[in-house]
Fold this sequence. Notes:
Blueprint: H1 2-21, H2 25-30, H3 32-48, H4 52-59, H5 67-77, H6 82-93
Helix pairs in contact: 1-3, 3-5
Amino acid sequence: MKERIQERLENEFNIYKEQVLASDKQSVFDKSYETAIKQEISLFFAECTENGMILEFLDKFPAAEILLDYLYDLWMDADSGIGNEIFDTLEMELQ
């Protein structure tokens, strides 16, 4: 199941990447954060997830929808952002 999810995310990222690369330089720059987050999701999300309930949900996610976009939107709607992640990392480093 993990492999199937991982493959789907990687395929969706490759389609996204082709669309971005077909854009002008400014559009590529404007999408740089989205690209970095989507790449991270596509490379590591499924293999880092051990929660069976999450894996089942992802595996049954409708094929007609883009799972990568759904996960990216979840990240963007989260109360925390990369600033909080950097702060937490720095805080752990200083302990």
